[in-house]
C-alpha cells in the first residue's frame, strides 16, 4: 500500500500538492478546498474534475478574487469630478492668492464626425459661487450658502447636434483678499447613438477677468486666455471635500398631469397662435408657502410667470423641419420663491404652424407639475387639468391683468404619455430669472445685457429670452447616459475566468 507521506508515488493528492496548485487558482477556490484537503485524501483526477466544475459552473467564485482589483465607484467618481482639475484665470498662486472678483469661462463642445449630441449631464462647483449657461440658456447656479463649493451640483441640458457653448460666471469672494479660487467641472455628453464622452475642466477652457457685455454668448473672445490649472482634484486647499448630493428618489415628474389647451382635440389640430393658462393656489390655513419647483413643457414653446413675475422659458425653437423641438425636453425650475398665502402660476404658450409644407394647424398642448413647499416642510403637488383657466391672448400684459371671470376652463387632451408627445426625451434644468441675491455670481455683471424684454405681442412665435435652438434632429431616440467605464469590469472578469479555465485544462493534461 502506498503511503500518504510519499506524494511522488501516491495516486492521491496531498496537502503539499494542493498548495502547489493554489498558485494557479484564486483564494476563493483555495479557501473552499483548504477546509478538507488536510484531512481528506482525494484522487488527483477527481480533484482536477472538481476544480474544473467549480470554475466552469461557478464563475462568480474566481470573480470574488478578480473583483478585488476593480476600483470602487461612488457618485463623485461616476460624475467625472474626481478626474477633473481646479482651474481659474492665470495668477501667480491660485492655491492661496487669487484676487476677489468674477471670472467668465467658456468651453466649446464639438461633436465628433458622425455623432449627434443629444444632452449633457454637467457636474460643477466653484469656489465660491457660479452661474451656468448652455448655448445662452441659463441652466443653474450655486445657492450662495457658506462654503457652497463643498457641494457640487449636477444639471442636465439639451444640446445642439454638433456644437455647444458652455459658459460659467464664477465669483471668488471672501474677507481675505486674495484667497484660493477655482472651478471644477465634468461634462458628460450623450449622443443619439447611446455613446457618451466626458469633458473635464482643464487648460482647454477659456477664461476672462473682463465680463463681456454680451456674455454668456460673447462674439469677441479677445479678452479670453487659456485657463490655468491650479491643481487636480484631491489636492490643494480643497482636498477631497467636494460631495454630490444623492439624487431625489421622489423627484417631480409629469405622470398624472394632463396636456391642456383652450380648444378641443388640440392633440390633433389647433389653431396657430398663443394661449394663456392660469392656476391660482391658496395655501392651507395652517401653512405658509415658501418655494415651488415647476416642471413644464408646451408644444411649441412657453413663458412662465409666477405672481406676474417672469421666471423663464425653454431654448428658442425655430420650427424648422428636421430640427429639434424645444418641447421635447421639459424645463425644470427649482426653488422659486413664493408669497406666503396665494400664488398665481401663469403660462403663456404658443402653437407654431405645422412643419409640413404649407404650414397650418398642428398639435398643441401644455403640461406641467408644480410642487409647492411649505414652511413646515410639507408639500403639495399641483398638476395641469381642466381646473386651470385658459384663453387666447394678444399680449402678455393683457392676460396677466385679465380677471378670472374672463377666462374659461382649459380642455384636457389626455394624461401625460399620450400621442403625439409620448413621454418626451427628458428633463432640462432651467434657472429662474428670480436669482437669489446671495449668489454673487448670479448677478448680471456690470455692462452685461440682461435677458431681452418680454414680448408684449404674440403675432410672432414667442422667443425665449436668452437662448438658441438645439439644431439636432429629433432627440426622441436618444439613449440614457452610459458610464464610460461601466462595461469594462464584466469583460475583465469574463476574460480572467476563461484564462483560469484554460489553466485547469492544461494542468489536467500535465498530471
UniProtKB/TrEMBL annotation:
Cross-referenced Gene3D superfamilies: Galactose-binding domain-like
Biased composition (Low complexity): 473-489
Region annotation (Disordered) ranges: 451-489
Protein name: Uncharacterized protein
Amino acid at each position: 500500500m502506498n503511503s500518504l507521506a510519499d506524494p511522488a508515488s501516491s495516486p492521491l493528492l496531498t496537502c503539499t500538492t494542493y498548495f502547489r496548485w493554489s498558485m494557479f487558482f484564486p483564494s476563493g477556490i483555495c479557501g473552499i478546498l483548504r477546509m478538507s484537503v488536510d484531512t481528506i485524501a482525494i484522487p488527483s483526477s477527481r480533484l482536477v474534475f472538481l476544480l474544473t466544475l467549480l470554475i466552469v459552473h461557478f464563475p462568480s467564485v474566481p470573480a470574488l478574487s478578480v473583483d478585488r482589483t476593480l476600483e470602487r465607484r461612488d457618485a463623485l467618481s461616476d460624475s467625472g469630478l474626481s478626474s477633473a482639475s481646479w482651474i481659474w484665470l492665470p495668477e501667480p498662486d491660485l492655491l492661496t492668492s487669487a484676487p476677489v472678483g468674477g471670472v467668465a469661462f467658456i468651453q466649446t463642445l464639438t461633436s465628433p464626425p458622425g455623432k449627434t449630441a443629444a444632452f449633457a449631464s454637467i457636474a460643477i462647483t466653484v469656489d465660491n459661487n457660479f452661474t451656468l449657461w448652455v448655448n445662452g440658456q441659463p441652466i443653474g447656479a450655486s445657492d450662495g450658502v457658506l462654503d457652497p463649493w463643498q457641494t457640487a451640483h449636477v444639471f442636465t441640458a439639451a444640446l445642439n447636434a454638433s456644437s455647444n457653448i458652455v459658459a460659467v460666471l464664477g465669483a471668488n469672494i471672501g474677507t481675505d483678499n486674495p484667497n484660493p479660487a477655482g472651478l471644477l467641472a465634468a461634462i458628460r455628453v450623450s449622443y443619439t447613438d447611446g455613446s457618451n464622452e466626458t469633458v473635464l475642466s482643464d487648460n482647454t477652457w477659456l477664461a476672462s477677468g473682463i465680463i463681456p457685455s454680451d456674455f454668456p454668448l460673447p462674439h469677441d473672445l479677445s479678452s479670453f486666455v487659456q485657463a490655468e490649472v491650479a491643481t487636480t482634484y484631491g489636492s490643494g486647499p480643497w482636498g477631497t471635500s467636494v460631495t454630490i448630493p444623492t439624487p431625489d428618489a421622489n423627484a417631480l415628474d409629469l405622470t398624472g398631469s394632463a396636456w391642456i389647451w383652450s380648444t378641443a382635440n388640440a392633440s390633433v389640430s389647433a389653431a396657430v397662435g398663443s394661449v394663456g393658462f392660469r392656476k391660482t393656489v391658496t395655501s392651507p390655513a395652517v401653512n405658509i408657502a415658501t418655494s415651488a419647483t415647476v416642471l413644464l413643457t408646451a408644444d411649441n414653446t412657453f413663458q412662465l410667470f409666477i405672481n406676474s413675475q417672469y421666471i423663464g422659458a425653454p431654448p428658442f425653437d425655430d420650427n424648422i423641419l428636421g430640427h429639434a423641438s424645444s418641447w421635447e425636453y421639459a424645463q425644470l425650475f427649482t426653488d422659486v420663491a413664493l408669497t406666503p398665502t396665494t400664488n398665481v402660476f401663469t403660462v403663456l404658450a404658443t402653437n407654431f404652424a405645422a412643419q409640413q409644407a404649407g404650414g397650418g394647424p398642428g398639435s398643441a398642448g401644455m403640461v406641467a407639475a408644480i410642487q409647492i413647499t411649505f414652511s413646515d416642510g410639507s408639500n403639495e403637488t399641483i398638476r395641469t387639468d381642466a381646473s386651470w383657466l385658459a384663453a387666447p391672448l394678444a399680449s402678455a400684459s393683457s392676460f396677466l391683468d385679465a380677471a378670472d371671470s374672463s377666462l374659461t376652463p382649459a380642455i384636457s387632451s389626455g394624461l401625460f404619455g399620450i400621442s403625439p408627445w409620448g413621454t418626451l426625451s427628458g428633463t432640462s434644468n432651467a434657472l429662474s430669472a428670480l436669482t437669489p441675491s446671495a449668489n454673487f455670481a448670479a448677478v448680471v455683471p456690470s455692462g452685461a445685457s440682461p435677458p431681452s424684454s418680454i414680448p408684449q405681442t404674440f403675432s410672432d412665435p414667442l422667443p425665449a429670452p436668452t437662448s438658441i435652438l438645439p439644431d439636432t434632429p429629433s432627440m426622441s431616440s436618444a439613449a440614457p447616459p452610459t458610464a464610460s467605464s461601466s462595461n469594462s469590469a464584466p469583460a475583465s472578469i469574463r476574460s480572467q475566468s476563461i484564462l483560469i479555465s484554460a489553466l485547469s485544462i492544461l494542468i489536467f493534461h500535465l498530471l
